[in-house]
Amino acid sequence: MDEREALLNYYREISQFLEDHFEGFRLGGPYDMEVIRQWFRYNLPPYYLLRLKDELPESFTLRDIGDFVLRRFLSERNVSFVPSPVGPSSALERLALRVREILGELGVSDFSIAERILELAADDDLLEVEKELYSLEKHFFKLLAARSPYAKECREFARKKLEPFRTRWSDKVLALTEQALVKRCLWEKHNVPEFTTATVT
Predict the structure, then answer these.
(1) Which phi and psi (to 5°) does residue 71 adopt?
(2) Are 60 and 28 spatial neighbours (Cβ–Cβ below 8 Å)?
(3) Residue 140 clears pLDDT 90, i.e. is over it
């Protein structure tokens, strides 16, 4: 199972659990997936939500409770920044260095993405750092999709991979999965590190 499929399964699992145990839960549309991505990254189990049942509002969407739940979960887990054994002093610095190299290879003179990643190294709010990295990752993906010499090859790879599912999956699921496959392909072609700083043990 690839990461995109695992993410969609996790989304269905979380949604079903909330519908079964929380009468006030309602779907929030496209904003749900941003919360799901954050929870998925830290392997937040559905049953953890029961521990917070008395603290959640009577009526809510995932967007309403996303930050609160994740902050509580992280406070109870051993989450730490990943140090680099050699070279740059942190995962963020390694990421910024590689992003800057790729931007230069693509002829992009605006290095603001790499500079912003470096700035995040001084931020102690892990959740805010991860949210900012998620936004920067989306921006960087758009640049790669538009400028990478591998973009066409990766799109063709994704479409071929999804061909058997076009009559079985909805257009929305197909579009999301195609985007994930294109991204994975581009990340591999350009050797892009993960846009994250933390490891959960």
Answers:
(1) -60, -45
(2) no
(3) yes
